[in-house]
Amino acid sequence: MQNRSNCAPKLLEIPSRCLVSVQNRHDFDHWNQAVHAVCGRFVTQRCTHADNFIGNIQHHQLGDLNLADIQVNALSIRRERGSASRGDDRFYFLVLQREGSMAINRSAQTFTLHPGDMALLDSAESFEMQPNGLIAQLSIHLCRDAVDRLLPTHAWRFGKIEQSGLSGRLLHGMLQQISDGEMNLGAGQSHGAALQDALINLLQPSLHPDDVPNTGRPLRRLAERMINKTLLAPPTPAELAAMLNISVRQLYRQFELDGDSIGRYIQRQRLHCAARDLAQTGDNALPITTIAYKWGFTDSAHFSRVFKRHYSMPPKDYRANVQGATSAHNNQGHP
Predict the structure, then answer these.
(1) Which end of the chain is more exposed for a tag (fewer CB within 10 A), N or C?
(2) CATH code of the domain containing 245
(3) Closest by alpha carbon to 38, among 81, 117, 93?
(4) Which residues pair with 101 in a beta bridge?
(5) Residue 168: DSSP 8-state
(6) pLDDT at 223 over 70
(7) Do the beta carbons of residue 315 and residue 277 sit within 8 Å?
(8) Does pTM top 0.70 for this prediction?
């Protein structure tokens, strides 16, 4: 087990059989290997005094839910843009900052996490984390499919999480209990799916588009809201630019700064809505062709190709997997 100082808080006191990997070497190469294995493609820049580099990561798995306890004093940790072909854009990182402060930069958006702050980070986005000395954080890797299935499409998915409301306080309390080792996470692997759903449902009330701060190119956020309100028949770029009182070139630039485009954004949002419909069961379940047409895909074969490229499986398999997981979850504990 990892050697920790007496002042370091406990984290995830679970049986060793649930421990997937432990990295406790203050060694830069081993740190990079562990981070890539647990969190995906991050590029770490050492602190000024290389001999004093500290990088510990402790990884636990509860069913399909991954949890990481991270301590590091790097100068910078940069996330490369995720890729569906590499399979490293499958998560949203739900973070609780436990010790120290850390700046997070994403394009023109910058915010700082202090002890007790929470944030949601998208593994498909490129961003940079800049610790101020030694920091410690709890990172829970929420499945992208589960988040996109449970959260409304218009909810933002990157930034600090508001804690003033009831849901935010409950979410913080759960993360704090996990961090302090007060939850018996070793009780059973089947609890991973239930815990993940609970965390995502508590996220939902705190993720409103109107809550997005005015930093980080508010024009893009406003454009996204206008698109999402009329997703079935969104305005043309010229119409959208006129509504925002900017030029079409300025509008394109808002998306290009993230390596994105208006067309890709619209398609991505439509795919999220289609995935949500595919997850419906019973009388609410629509045929796959109907879902494709509903969300603007006039060619069902094209819909299947685009959906598979985004979710790494065709719509039919996605529906079967989601419904199978839902059925298994509902039958837990029943004879």
Answers:
(1) C
(2) 1.10.10.60
(3) 93
(4) 132
(5) H
(6) yes
(7) no
(8) no
